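Lab notebook, bench 4. We co-purified these components, and the gel suggests they stay together. Before we commit to crystallization screens, I want a quick structural picture of the whole thing.
Request: model the full complex, all chains together.
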Amino acid sequence: GQNIDQPTEMTATEGAIVQINCTYQTSGFNGLFWYQQHAGEAPTFLSYNVLDGLEEKGRFSSFLSRSKGYSYLLLKELQMKDSASYLCAPIRPGGGNKLTFGTGTQLKVEL
Amino acid sequence: ETGVTQTPRHLVMGMTNKKSLKCEQHLGHNAMYWYKQSAKKPLELMFVYNFKEQTENNSVPSRFSPECPNSSHLFLHLHTLQPEDSALYLCASSQDGTANYGYTFGSGTRLTVV
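Here is the predicted assembly.
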């Protein structure tokens, strides 16, 4: 099955680096997405990993270890606008593949 | 308009009311989804439509009735809801019936049942 674990809340300082971890259990694996969701808004795509390693995209990077069922999202040079919920979403295998979601990590960026 | 549009943004309804949520996507995608997002809970997949055909219903109570007249439009008809149905209802679309290219989400309808 899919048990997706990520921290409920994190707080970090503007300009700093923060790492949001996600662990998942699945009988198969077809990729993992990270989404950002500001309060009252649509979740928006941040990154996609299907192979092990680090994917870098500007201030945001995402890492995947398939053997460990582990991913993290790394945010650098934090800005106040990065305060949002970050959703870890592995693809559920079978049946055409569907996204499943963790509860999300609410990140608060402070001065 | 571009992307995925949901209306209304906010809805308050009584338990005996009937209302409908609307979702429209302008991306040329072939699959559409309804998700429920409750506080401190993961997004819950409710329904999946692929080329207008319902391909998944995750044991959703019959007081929620989806309708997909074409690949661009998706409705969620609501009747005799319960207060615990209060949540953010998100619509999403994808290029095909898989998650391989990710989903594009609408901003959601914040539903309050009183």
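Residues 29 and 93 of chain A are 6 Å apart (CA to CA). Worth comparing against the SEC data before the next meeting. The two ends of chain A are 40 Å apart (CA to CA).
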